Each structure stands twice: as C-alpha cells, then as structure tokens.
Amino acid sequence: MSAPEKPAPPVNYWTKPYWNAANEGKLIIQRCLDCQKHIFYPRICCPFCFSDRIEWVPASGKGRVYTYTVVRSNAPSAFIGDMPFVIAIVRLEEGVQMLTNIVGCDPDEVRCEMPVEVTFERLNENFVLPKFKPAGSE
Amino acid sequence: MGIKGKAAIVGIGEVPTGKFPDREAIVCAIESARQAILDAGINKDEIDTVIPTAALYSPQFNTELVGCRIVEEIGLAGKVKNNVQIFSGGSSSCNFLRIASGLINLGVSRCILCVHADKLGTGVSAQGGIDLFSTAGISKEWEVPYGMHYSAIAGLITQRYMYETGTTAEQVASVCVSNRKWAELNPNAMFRKPLTVEEVMASKMLSTPLHAKESNMLADGGSAFIITSAERAREITDRPVYILGEGSRVTHFALSQEPDLTRFAYAAAAEEAYREAGLTPRDIDIAEIYDSYPVFQLIALEELGFCKRGEAGAFVYEGNTWPGGKLPMTTNGGMLSQGHTGAGGGVAILVEAARQLMGKAGERQVEGARFAIETATGGTYMDTHVTILGTEIP
What is the dihedral of CA A89, A92, A95, A97, to 10 degrees? Predict the structure, then answer.
C-alpha cells in the first residue's frame, strides 16, 4: 500500500499572500499598521490591538530553535517514509513563533537555541513550505 | 460569588479501562451512569440534567450521546429537562464541574449526571489512532503539513522542559513508574504489572526524548459522577465531596503559538483555585494531576507549588509520589497506566479524586485524605484547569 499524499494546507483569502510568497522562495509575515507588532500565523485582525489594518512585510528568515523533536517512530501515515525527521518550533528575530521542520543537517545535531535560517521545500505542484536549516549551512 | 462549597459530588461510577472489542461504548456509558446513581443512593428520577462529553472514536456514537440516548436508556425520558454535551478534550472533566456547579448554584439544575464513554482502544486501529491524533486539535494550515502529531507534541514540550530545568531522562521516566505503582493497586487500570525506570528507558524512542512507555495508550472505557447542591448532598451522604475552588486559563490553539511550553498556565490557574478554596499547597493531601505524558505531572508539581522549579523530577524519582509517599499523585495510575479513553482520561482522574475523598479507593486509599487538587488540560494542552475538592468547607 502506498503512503497517502502529504497533507496540503488549506488556503484562505487572508493567507494567500503568504503561500504565494513561499512559492517564490520568500518568507513574509504580517505587521499591524496601528500597533506595529509582527504577527504570525496570518490573522484576520491584529490579536494585540484588534486593528484590521495589517500589512505584509518580508521576514528576516533568521531565528533560533525554541524546541525540537526527532520523530523516530509512530509518525502519521503520510510521514512514515520521512523518518527520522525533525519537527521544531522556531522563534524568528521578529519575535513570532512558527512550527516547522529542520532540514539540511543530521537530525541528531539539532539543539535548543541553535541559530537557524529559512529554506524552502516544494510540497507538491501547488505548494512550497518554508522550513529551516542551521544558520550559514549550504 | 464563586462556587466554593455550593455543590458536591455524591456518587461515582467507572468501568474497567482497556481493550474490550466486544464491549459496546454505550455499555460503558450506561454501566458507569448506573454505578454512579447506585453509589449516590438516590432515586434516578432526581436527575434533571444529563451531560455527556464527546466520544472520539465514532461520530455516529457521539451523535447518539448528543441525541439523548443515555436519558432514554436509563429511563429518564419525560423527566430530564436537558441533555447537553460539554466537550473540551482532556479538560472536559473540569468543565463538567465548572458548568454543572454553576447550573446548580444558579438553581437551573438540581441534580446532574455527567458521563463519559469511548472506544478508542479497539474502535480505531493503532495507525488510525496515530492519524486521528495528527489532525485532531492541530492547525491544518500551520502545523499538520509539517507532520505534527501528539507524540511529537509531547517530545517538543519535554525537550524544552529538560533543557530549561536540567531534569534528566531517568527522572522523567520515573513519573511512569510512580503512576504504575498506583495502577498496580487499581483493578480498573489497563496496565498493572510493575514497571522500572530501566524498562521505560529501554522502550522504543517515539519522538525524542519521548519513549514508548512514556506515551499513554488509547483505551476503551467509561466513567460518570453525580453532582448536586451542598444542601442536598448533606441529606444524601455524610461524606459529600465539595468543590472548593477552581482556576483556569486558555493558552493557545496552535502549540507553536504557546509562549512557555515549560509552564503553560498552571500557576495562574492554581493561584485562583487556592485563593477561592482558602487553602495552600501544604493543605493538600492528594495531587490528582492530569498526565497523558509524564512531563505534565512534573510541570504541574512545580507550578502548583509542591516543588521548586526544576526539582519535581528528583521529587518523583525519590518516590515521594508513590503509595505511602509524602504527596500521593495521580492515584488511579493516570492515562499512562489506567489508559487514555479520550476526554475520559481526565474524567477518570476527577472520579479518582472523588473516590479517594469518599474513602472508597480500596487498596490504594490514602488514609485521612481531606483535600485533593485535580488538574486537566485539553487538546494540545490548550487550556489549563485546576480544581480543589474537599470533604469539608474550610
């Protein structure tokens, strides 16, 4: 039996710019025009000041690993072939947190507070997922 | 106006947890409800409100719960005023208490039956269970595409907790040993064979640093309790279990948005609960802490004021939470040993708190227990609830 297809994210009108940018190899996040705070994941209104005046800005793509786990067994069906793989929460320099995968290194080399930078991996013909790799790596 | 001393649990029921392919979920619901009514010693017609929580294994069975099947099966049709579901995942237990005691306090309901039943042990396959919990309560947009699932969630939290506190892998593993010591004395538990730290450490690695024996096992089961006003409770029994205080916070939807994976909101929730009850950690005889994974018991021991930050691991490793220890913890064995029945894992822990305070815990009875603290958390640990229960109103 072949593995089921990887789950693709549903796209809503307010998140479309994020996925379009990812397709072009760019990481963008939201910023509130009223309170100036950065926002991720993309929101319909600002969770801090409740404004609906939100703009998209390029993200630095740099951050640190807040925490991580190496999935070694009991993965969801679509991810069994990927094991071992790293799931991590990355804190960007802008202060927002994202769930991601750490790629481009041995899974056992990942550590909390390790500096990382964004990279992009194609999921399917429609989607590119932002992921992270050790800072300064190829 | 709070709920302190206004409502009390007067009856409990529970069926054994485990893998019972031939036992229908409705049997778990009705048998648990029947036990709770008989335990309270009331006429069933006194119940005017029935509150089932959700079953996850089958949408069909869940709509039967929503559709008043329990009311009809136990012969309360035409008598019960309302049947309404309360569901917040693992924290359904505390939301049962909060909402039921609120209804009683307002005079809207007089006697409430809260019930849980599910068949996650045999109603879904092993891989089906993993797949169910790679989407249930997980952000489809921002987390599911990265392979997120509950073992990984526990791995992420445990990793950061160990990094910040210096807690060792053996200390984390010792939580499972503590829970098993209690489950050895619990006839309703799924796992009752003695367990060692070495066995936990030697078990398969799921998502680092989480070992297989640090993961709960999905199970079939059911439990129920009856709650009524304090005045009525005193007529029914000479040992009502009063709700003395409660506190809670919702902290996130997507786990990646949680600002502190090593604390969540246990301290804020506990502070509210202690203040309402007029009690401190020193007054607590039993800590019925929601597990599902061992790290949550360590976090709660610290944030509820039983241990200093970073010292819970050694506290558990040294046996302080075992039978006969300074602070009996999760005395039914928790979801790590009694088994994880979905929303019912938390209900079973709440029922155990009541059982201990009623003096009905058999071989594992904590002698002289007057006050118990109980916690629950739902979904991806999205909310934190703390409740204090007692046999007297301080």
Answer: -20
